[in-house]
């Protein structure tokens, strides 16, 4: 699970402050070591870790006593705010050209998910009402062109190709011309991905960039690439080995590309995988360029903006309720989703919503990801997922056995053992199971309400439950 280790590492830091009255230089020493260790183990770049720990430490001993806030919660808040700042604070939106087509140039090493991102991005922009065209500029791998054509077809976007015998800059020029002729809003240009950065690759990219004068140059980075993992990418000509050791490979990569060709941002892929999260936390601080989008799976829908505050929430194990609601929104009818969101906020969440949500969740596919977004469920194993899927089925059966009135007013079931008995019999479950389901719904209401309140108020819920 993404960030799982980081989350538990940080948890052990807060736990050491339980029972303390106030944060002092002495009592934060141990927790600060935990935080440092957790970040390093998550592959966060060393200079970033140093600065982060220093800053958090300084703030922690300076805050003094705040009424009603426990020292461990104070530290969580400081770390949260610092994590958000580290990842760039605000979400960095894609920039669009004021006139003519917007050109997005994608660069990245082979295998990072660049071709997939081309199609995902077109799909994402198409949903926003923009017409898109893909340009196949990876002339070194015929398979890459074929793959782009197939993916383009899948998302309903045309792909401009010239085969492999034309120079990439020439393909780019002709592709752009074609897009202008067709009044296309956004042109997404794929470029060659090699196994390592070399001078020829950079020169070629510079040529393509010169021809296109792109609005965005985005580097696609594989989040799974840790400090040590993967091939040794970066040519020593371009980046010193000792620097790579110090800042980590993904970061060296972003920095190198930025220095060489000038990028406007990065796209992090494979965030659904077993990544330890270091790249997500270091890219902005070290390279100065924001992560704009993240890929979280192999499906065309799995592309989202990068929200630093939500990412911080996930790291702290608070889950990512907003992303969950947003995903659900995409799947469900628009009005249904708005209704659901309002209900979650208002804590009027009933069994109909429960059912809608679980069905939406099922449609969303990957339970792992969704469960990771639910507060308190950050550490899930495959066995737990199967268990959860089974219990969703059981819940569905019981909800289906309720009357429409009972679904809307769970209080009716809470108050009446007869009603619970009827539901139990009709669904072939025990009365105890029905009682548990009802209790669960009320717990969910309280939890959602607390969490939403905390998010709106800018504070954070207690970590102790
Ligand atoms: P390219 O060589 O950079 O063009 O990489 P591809 O787009 O061909 O992707 C390489 C592999 O990674 C393919 O098997 C993709 O299905 C997979 N992949 C791409 N993006 C993601 C992602 O966000 N999550 C996961 N799990 N796999 C991905």
In short:
The protein has helices spanning 4-15, 29-41, 46-62, 71-86, 114-127, 142-155, 168-181, 199-212, 241-247, 249-261, 278-287, 308-315, 321-331, 334-346, 351-363, 367-373, 382-400, 404-408, 410-415, 417-427, 431-457, and strands spanning 102-107, 132-137, 158-160, 186-191, 216-222, 265-269, 291-295, 303-305. The protein has 465 residues and is α/β, with parallel strands linked by helices.
SS-based class: alpha/beta
Portion of residues within helices: 55-70%
As for the number of domains, it is 3
Number of strands: 8
Radius of gyration: 25 Å
User: Treating each run of at least 4 consecutive H or I residues as one helix, how many helices?
Assistant: 21
**Strand order in the largest sheet:** 3-2-4-1-5-6-7-8
Commentary on this structure:
It comes from Salix brachista. With 465 residues, the chain is α/β, with parallel strands linked by helices. Helix content is 57%, strand content 9%. The chain has helices spanning 4-15, 29-41, 46-62, 71-86, 114-127, 142-155, 168-181, 199-212, 241-247, 249-261, 278-287, 308-315, 321-331, 334-346, 351-363, 367-373, 382-400, 404-408, 410-415, 417-427, 431-457; strands spanning 102-107, 132-137, 158-160, 186-191, 216-222, 265-269, 291-295, 303-305. The two termini are 21 Å apart. An eight-stranded mixed sheet has the order 3-2-4-1-5-6-7-8, with helices on both faces. Strand 7 and strand 8 (303-305) form a beta hairpin. The structure holds guanosine-5'-diphosphate (GDP). Guanosine-5'-diphosphate is lined by residues 108, 110-116, 144, 193, 269-270, 272-273, 295-298, 302.
């Amino acid at each position: 699970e993404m960030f799982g280790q980081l989350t538990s590492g940080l948890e052990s830091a807060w736990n050491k402050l339980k029972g303390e009255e106030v944060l002092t230089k002495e009592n934060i020493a141990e927790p600060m070591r935990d935080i440092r260790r957790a970040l390093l183990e998550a592959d966060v770049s060393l200079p970033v870790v140093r600065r982060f720990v220093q800053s958090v430490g300084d703030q922690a001993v300076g805050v003094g006593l705040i009424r009603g806030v426990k020292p461990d919660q104070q530290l969580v808040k400081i770390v949260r705010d610092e994590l958000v700042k580290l990842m760039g604070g605000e979400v960095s939106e894609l920039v669009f050209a004021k006139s003519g087509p917007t050109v997005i140039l994608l660069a990245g090493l082979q295998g990072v998910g660049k071709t997939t991102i081309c199609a995902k991005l077109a799909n994402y922009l198409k949903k926003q009402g923009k017409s898109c065209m893909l340009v196949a500029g990876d002339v070194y791998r015929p398979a890459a062109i074929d793959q782009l054509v197939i993916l383009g077809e899948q998302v309903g976007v045309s792909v401009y190709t010239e085969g492999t015998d034309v120079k990439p800059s020439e393909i780019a020029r002709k592709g752009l011309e074609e897009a202008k002729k067709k009044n296309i809003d956004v042109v997404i240009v794929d470029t060659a991905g090699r196994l390592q950065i070399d001078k020829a690759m950079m020169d070629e990219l510079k040529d393509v960039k010169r021809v296109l004068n792109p609005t965005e140059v985005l580097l696609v980075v594989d989040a799974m690439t840790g400090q040590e993992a993967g091939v040794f990418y970066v040519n020593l000509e371009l980046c010193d080995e000792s620097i790579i050791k110090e800042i980590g490979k993904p970061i060296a990569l972003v920095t190198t590309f930025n220095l060489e060709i000038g990028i406007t941002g990065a796209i992090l892929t494979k965030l659904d995988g077993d990544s330890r999260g270091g790249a997500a936390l270091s890219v902005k601080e070290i390279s100065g360029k924001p992560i704009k989008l993240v890929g979280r799976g192999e499906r065309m829908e799995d592309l989202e903006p990068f929200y630093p505050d939500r990412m911080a929430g996930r790291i702290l194990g608070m889950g990512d309720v907003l992303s969950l609601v947003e995903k659900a929104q995409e799947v469900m009818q628009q009005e249904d989703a708005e209704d659901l969101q309002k209900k979650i906020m208002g804590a009027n969440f009933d069994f109909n919503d429960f059912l809608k949500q679980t069905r939406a969740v099922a449609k969303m596919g990957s339970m792992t990801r969704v469960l990771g977004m639910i507060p308190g469920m950050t550490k899930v194993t495959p066995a737990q997922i199967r268990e959860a899927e089974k219990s969703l089925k059981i819940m569905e059966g019981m909800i289906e056995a309720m009357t429409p009135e009972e679904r809307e007013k769970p209080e009716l079931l809470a108050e009446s053992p007869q009603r619970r008995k009827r539901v139990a019999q009709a669904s072939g479950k025990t009365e105890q199971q029905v009682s548990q389901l009802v209790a669960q719904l009320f717990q969910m209401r309280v939890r959602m309400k607390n969490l939403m309140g905390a998010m709106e108020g800018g504070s954070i819920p207690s970590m102790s439950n």
